[in-house]
Specification:
Layout lengths: L2 E10 L4 E3 H5 L6 H8 L3 E3 L7 H16 L8 E5 L10 H9 L4 E5 L5 H14 L6 E7 L10 H4 L5 E10 L4 E9 L7 E2 L22 E2 L1 H22 L9 E4 L4 H10 L11 H4 L6 H11 L8 E8 L3 E8 L6 E3 L1 H5 L7 E3 L6
Parallel strand pairs: 4-5, 4-6, 11-12
Antiparallel strand pairs: 1-7, 2-3, 6-7, 8-13, 9-10, 12-13, 14-15
The structure holds acetyl coenzyme *A.
The site of acetyl coenzyme *A has 24 residues, from helix 2, helix 6 and helix 7.
Length: about 350
């Protein structure tokens, strides 16, 4: 049985910080309201020189470096995003152009659930032997599509990118199972009109056709609390484990109250839940890989740990997965021999890069 271990992680956020105090000067809100309702204290916002591509490339480079690989070693790049720099071509192709190499490349759109969807697709490609080494990136720059006069949405979002490298192993490592779901009838609770191939009847309407994110916050909140808990619990149960076996929950960082509800559903203490929503807000598809990269960098994930990922997003979509942490069994092709025109490759055991 082939598995897909996570052998490298990376993250990137813009330098520019937008604090609650900054927002107090922009809309009728307060630090007290934002912190008590969402847990968010500040978020990172793209500047003129940042883009979904620049953040993705920075996170991708970091993940490759941690895995001890170059772009030439990667044979597939998947970018989960709702905010690509352009619709033609894919974000993944823009990233490949910057990173180099000749990997196949495509995007996945499942909003904030996108990274877990992408991880699931990449893992199954590796398990089937279709690809060997995959770079999976979650990246979004939603602040480009936020109406900064709308206090109900502008306080929530930040920008960023997170990345992982997946490599094959015979040991049960990486994503062991996933729970993916969608309810398209909920699409009008969280959406951005005027941002696709449907255009107004008259060109004169274009100025009013505002491509801003629209949200029914209370409806999304109720949905999120329900699916985050249910999907995470299902991922644990499908793995034949109990909640007591979970070492870390890495949830989508949308709102601290939603995260608390998911943690309660799994009966997890605070120290087993990674929370950084206070510093980044909701970075959409980047949120789970950024949280994962931070948890690993802080030394909170050890070889063999059971890590639950869970997310929800526009669509409406949801996704959860059980990850067995570590790089056991990952075997690296020696670069020298890999270049040789032979199938008789000598393999070297890869160095653990974390955990
Ligand atoms: N500052 C002060 N007051 C505010 C603000 C603000 N920033 N925003 C709303 N209010 C007011 C409302 O106008 C309302 O006032 P009223 O009672 O006079 O009408 C009051 O606060 C309560 O508003 P609610 O919407 O009931 O507040 P709630 O407790 O539900 O919190 C929130 C709102 C934070 C948006 C919450 O509903 C939420 O987090 N929902 C989930 C949103 C989410 O996660 N979206 C991202 C999905 S991911 C993706 O795919 C992009």
């Amino acid at each position: 049985m082939r598995y897909a271990a996570i052998t490298g992680l990376g993250m990137a956020v813009p330098e520019r910080i937008l604090t609650n105090a900054d927002l107090e000067r922009m809309v009728d809100t307060s630090d007290e309201w934002i912190v008590s309702r969402t847990g968010i204290r500040e978020r990172r916002v793209v500047g003129p020189n940042d883009s979904t591509t620049s953040l993705s490339v920075a996170a991708g480079r970091q993940a490759l470096e941690q895995a001890g690989l170059t772009a030439d070693d990667i044979d597939l790049i998947i970018v989960a995003t709702c905010t690509p720099d352009q619709f033609v071509v894919s974000e993944a192709c823009l990233v490949q152009a910057e990173l180099g190499g000749a990997a196949a490349a495509f995007d996945i759109g499942a909003a904030c659930s996108g990274f877990v969807y992408a991880l699931s697709v990449a893992t199954s490609f590796i398990q089937q032997g279709m690809h060997n080494r995959v770079l999976v990136i979650g990246a979004d720059t939603f602040t480009r599509f936020i109406d900064y006069t709308d206090r109900s949405t502008c306080i929530l979002f930040g920008d960023g990118a997170g990345a992982v490298v997946l490599e094959p192993t015979d040991e049960p490592r990486g994503l062991l199972n996933t729970v993916l779901g969608a309810n398209g009838t909920g699409n009008k609770h969280l959406y951005a009109p005027g941002w696709g191939a449907v255009v107004p009847e008259s060109a004169e309407l274009f100025p009013e056709y505002r491509p801003y994110l629209q949200m029914n916050g209370q409806e999304v909140f109720r949905f999120a609390v329900r699916v985050m808990g249910d999907a995470a619990a299902e991922a644990v149960e499908r793995s034949g484990l109990t909640f007591a076996d979970v070492d870390m929950l890495v949830p989508h960082q949308a709102n601290a109250r939603i995260i608390d509800a998911a943690a309660r559903r799994l009966d997890l203490p605070r120290e087993k839940v990674w929370v950084n929503v206070d510093r980044y807000g909701n970075t959409s598809a980047a949120s789970v890989p950024i949280a994962l990269a931070e948890a690993a960098a802080a030394g909170h994930l050890d070889e063999g740990d059971n890590v639950v990922l869970v997310a929800f997003g526009a669509g409406l979509t949801w996704a959860a997965g059980m990850v067995r942490w570590g790089v056991a069994g990952v075997r690296r092709l020696s670069p020298h021999r890999a270049d040789a025109a032979t199938n008789d490759l000598v393999v070297a055991v890869g160095e653990p890069v974390h955990g």
